[in-house]
Every structure is written in C-alpha cells, then in structure tokens.
Amino acid sequence: MKKNTFSKFYAYFGTIFAVALVCLVIVASCGPYNSVLVRQGSPEARHKPPVDAFVIVTIDSKVLPEKCDPPTENCLAVIGSLPPIETRKTGSGMMVWHEGRSFILTAAHVCKEKEAPSHFNHPEKDIRIKLKTAEEISVIGVDGVAHEADIVSLNDDLDLCALRAEAFNGGAVALAPTAPRIGDVVYSIAAPYGLGGESLSLIFNGRYSGIRRGMHYYTIPTRPGSSGAIVLNQDWQAIGSLHTAFVPLESIGMGAGWQDLKIFLESIN
Fold it and tell me: What are the tens digits of pLDDT across the range 91-112?
C-alpha cells in the first residue's frame, strides 16, 4: 500500500514537472519572437499638412589637420596653428511609414558629403598634411529642437537616404497605396535655403507631370535646401521626393517616384 502511494506521488510530481518545463520552453521561445514582430501602427488619416512629420536635415562637417605626412620642419612649424574648417549644409526630409516601420527620408546627396580631400599639399613650402573629416547629422522638427540622427540606408542611384533619430517624436505620413497619375495635385513641405523650422513651414503645391529618363517631374518650386523633400498626394501620403532643381524654370522639381520610395523602403533590413 505504501509502495503504491509513493508510485502515485512520483507519477503525479513527474507530470507537473513536465508540464511546467513545457510552459517554460514556450514562454522562453515566444518572448524574443514577439519582440521581433513588433510593428508600428499605420498613421491616422491626415486632413491637413503634416508639418509635424517634416524635418530640416543638417550636416555639420569639420575638417581637421591630423598629422604631417611626412613630418618636415616647415610642416611641424605650422600644423599646430591651423584651425579646423567647418561647414554646414541643409536639406529637407519627412518621417515616412510603410509596412510597420518608419524612417526619416531625405536625399542621398544630403546625407553624404562629396569625397573630402585626404591631404593638404603645399609643395613649394614642403608641406603635406593628412586631413581627417568628422561629420554629424541632425534633424530639426517644427519644435525647433535638433536631434542626432544616423544613416540607416542609402541608395545613390535613387538619391534616397533613410535616417533614424531615436529622440524625434514627430508624426509620420504613410506611403500612398498607389502611384499618382499625370495631372494629379501634389504637395511638398520643404526648407529651401534653410527656411523653416520652429513656427515656419513652407508648403508648396503643384502637379505630378510624369517621368522622363527615369526622373519624375513635379511642378513644385525646388531650390537648394529643398533636396529630400517628400512629395505628397491630396491625402497627404508620400508619392515621391525632390532632389534636383530644373534651373531654367523656377517651378519645376525632379526626383524619385512612388515606386522608387516603395522599393527603397522595402530594401531596408
């Protein structure tokens, strides 16, 4: 009788332990899985310009003398007194949502500096200085606050760049479900010549005018600083971007199309 009681106890305990172990395995395996699948909900429908999703993208570059190469007497005499060369350029951008993820989109040539010189040469004075370049990217929303940003993806062929700014808490626009048709009314929010930011949002409108040689045309004024501006349809959804001005005509901008944005966003890992 005693033996049977112990047998039943061990069988009961073994069953409970096995069930608990299975539950632990399920919880352990499901935790990370769910965290990977977390997606952002789609933005609410817009009924007015999405100024909260717009940003000015700023690139601050600093070129510094690193060392004499080679360390000649003339070079060593001057390198310590050389100041850094600081430059700033600006572009336009906007937070765009697609398939559960949001990125700040702008133009690739805004994100990336042209090839910086690696050396400063003055052969007559026997001076050759190796240079180093430091670069900082930030985005400024309508609140006027600058947030540090990092490049997530960049495509030179499409002239598109995706940025992530963890501290930016503005809104987002959705990628439109379909491409525009020729003649559709379109809009953009941009900061030509850096005009924009806190209490100022320049909103332009025009029409989608088609594609030629891979370039999409919009009758929207485009100037330096407008590069990267997202083109929006009448539902304030993203259908393209601006990256090139047609200088002879002030009211024409060129850039990426809806399909380009879709391909680029879906290519980001």
Answer: 999 999 999 999 999 999 999 8
